[in-house]
Structures are given as structure tokens and as C-alpha cells.
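Section 5: illustrative case.
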């Protein structure tokens, strides 16, 4: 499996051609659910890869269609902000690329600005290159989370960061239960979604 910018190409800007097939299956059957009540979606049993439950899920958010985000974290920055955001994104991308082994990168351990993570999938759509799982999080759940978020972007040509809601509920393929995740974009342009017991999904 090879991305349009390989692990060794760290000096230049990656070419996000939005054609890499790896990200395509993620949103084929994805469902994004923005909870609208405090008692909706919280499972009674633990998620095998996310110890604990999502019982702390806040309420009050109206249900949102699959094509729009209720609360957008990265909406349309100004020119100066865009330059700063692009520089932060490239710095993070280059840092991760330098850590990857030659050949198959999936399963590689990386450090995302102090957060240990595992590379789960690479691609070039949605202006992102890496889907990663933090501690206590499986790659299956990380990919499911990325797939749910991708349903919010109009197309793979759009930057996913402009469509990140404050909270999403992701269904586990293992337990068929919903787990609440809180999402934000940090100062390094890393999309971080956290929930359960210290579970974290990172997307760059």
C-alpha cells in the first residue's frame, strides 16, 4: 500500500490528490449520529477496545443531517490563519512521515506531539493523510470514527477539518453499541476525538 507522498518524502508539501482508495470504503456505509438527548446512545456494557462507557455524554444538541456538522471547529480561516494552519499541518505531516518505517506503515507506532499512537490507515482524500488510534483504542474503532466524520464533508476534495462537529456518536462494529466522542482540532491541526476511558482517535 503506498500513498501519493511516501514516508521518505518529507521536505515538500504532500499532494492531496483525493484519489487514494484507502479512504473510500470508510464512508460507504457510515452513519454519523449527533445525539440530541442526555440518555441516548450511552451503552450499558463496556466497549472491548474502549474500556468504560460513554455515560458522560452531554445533551442539548439537535440531530444533524449526515451532510452537515452541527458545530464546526475549523470553519473557513482568514488568509493569515490559513497560512499558520497550513504550516502547522505540514509540520505535523512531516514529523509523522519521518517516524514511519519503509514499506507498510499501517501498524507503525508514532508520537503525535506527545501522544503515542498507532497508524491505522493512510490516504490522500479529505486533505488528511493519517488515521491513528491512541491508547486503549483499536484501529477498527479509529477507522469507524474517521468514516463517520467523512460523511459530513461534501466530497473527498474538501478539507475534513472544516466539518468537524464538537461531538459525534460512533457505533462499534464489535458490540453494536454507540459511544460518544468529543472532537476538536488542536494547535498542530490534528483532529482529536476522545471518549470512553482515555480512548483517542487522531486524524492528520
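Designed sequence:
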Amino acid at each position: 500500500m503506498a500513498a501519493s507522498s511516501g514516508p521518505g518524502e518529507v521536505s515538500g508539501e504532500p499532494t492531496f490528490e483525493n484519489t487514494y482508495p484507502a479512504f473510500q470504503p470508510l464512508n460507504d456505509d457510515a452513519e454519523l449520529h449527533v445525539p440530541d438527548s442526555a440518555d441516548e446512545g450511552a451503552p450499558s456494557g463496556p466497549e472491548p477496545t474502549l474500556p468504560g462507557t460513554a455515560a458522560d455524554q452531554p445533551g442539548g444538541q439537535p440531530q444533524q443531517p449526515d451532510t452537515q456538522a452541527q458545530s464546526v471547529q475549523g470553519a473557513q480561516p482568514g488568509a493569515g490563519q490559513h497560512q499558520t494552519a497550513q504550516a502547522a499541518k505540514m509540520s505535523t505531516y512531516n514529523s509523522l512521515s519521518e517516524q514511519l518505517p519503509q514499506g507498510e506503515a499501517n501498524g507503525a507506532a508514532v508520537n503525535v506531539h506527545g501522544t503515542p499512537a498507532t497508524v491505522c490507515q493512510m490516504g490522500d482524500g479529505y486533505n488528511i493523510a493519517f488515521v491513528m488510534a491512541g491508547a486503549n483504542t483499536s484501529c477498527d474503532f479509529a477507522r469507524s470514527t474517521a468514516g463517520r466524520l467523512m460523511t459530513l464533508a461534501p466530497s473527498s476534495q474538501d478539507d475534513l477539518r472544516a466539518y468537524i462537529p464538537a461531538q459525534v456518536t460512533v457505533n462499534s462494529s464489535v458490540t453494536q453499541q454507540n459511544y460518544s466522542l468529543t472532537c476538536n482540532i488542536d494547535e498542530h491541526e490534528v483532529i482529536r476525538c476522545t471518549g470512553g476511558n482515555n480512548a483517542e482517535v487522531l486524524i492528520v
